[in-house]
């Protein structure tokens, strides 16, 4: 009994025992696309993004509008209540700010996430920072440590919440 050696259709020098689950083309682990129904060759694998990452113009507009409104409101509150920050503890304020912006942006975009939605949320954090500076009476692009720490923590939290 002899066993026939099978080589990958895309990499002819690589032996394989794996075949596409749809067309049965021999594939190696390097070119296999693992799906929820088994290994597929690149031709048979679904090329579509996951639905949560498919963002349309209406989700972008809705998320952008919410990011702008929440950013302005959060900046006003931040400017009146915490014009100078709390030093190291500003990180916690930033985390709360980032979550307070990212969550409504995600909801307005119907639960979508990904790079576009995360960028919109970060823009909302920047709007909050700029409004804070105006309300607190600082120059628009003031670079004090506490405010930048809050902005950085807010942006990191927003990106983490809407990770892609």
- Model regions low in confidence, pLDDT < 50 over at least 5 residues: none
Strand order of the largest sheet: 1-2
β-strand percent reads: 5-15%
Name the overall outline: elongated
Return the average pLDDT rounded to an integer.
88
Main sheet characteristics: 2 strands, antiparallel
Count of domain modules = 2
The total count of strands amounts to 4
**Class by SSE composition:** mainly alpha
- Helix content range of the residues, please? 40-55%
Gap from first CA to last CA: 50 Å
Question: SSE string, helix = H, strand = E?
Answer: EEEEHHHH
Q: Please count the helical segments.
A: 4
Cα Rg: 24 Å
Structural overview:
Helix content is 50%, strand content 6%. The chain is mainly α and 164 residues long. Strands 1-2 form a two-stranded antiparallel sheet. A two-stranded antiparallel sheet has the order 3-4. Helix 2 (90-108) packs parallel to helix 4 (145-161). The chain is elongated and about 85 Å long. The termini are far apart. The mean pLDDT is 88.
């Amino acid at each position: 009994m002899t066993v026939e050696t099978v080589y990958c259709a895309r990499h002819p020098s690589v032996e394989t025992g794996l075949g596409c689950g749809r067309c049965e083309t021999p594939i190696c682990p390097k070119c296999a696309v693992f799906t929820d129904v088994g290994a597929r060759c690149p031709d048979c694998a679904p090329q579509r993004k996951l639905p949560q990452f498919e963002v349309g113009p209406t989700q972008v507009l809705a998320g952008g509008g919410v990011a702008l409104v929440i950013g302005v409101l959060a900046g006003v509150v931040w400017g009146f209540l915490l014009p100078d920050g709390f030093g190291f503890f500003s990180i916690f304020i930033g985390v709360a700010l980032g979550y307070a912006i990212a969550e409504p942006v995600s909801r307005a975009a119907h639960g979508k996430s990904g790079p576009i939605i995360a960028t919109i949320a970060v823009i909302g954090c920047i709007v909050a920072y700029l409004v804070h500076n105006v309300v607190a009476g600082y120059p628009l692009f003031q670079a004090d440590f506490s405010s930048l720490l809050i902005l950085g923590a807010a942006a990191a939290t927003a990106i983490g919440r809407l990770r892609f």
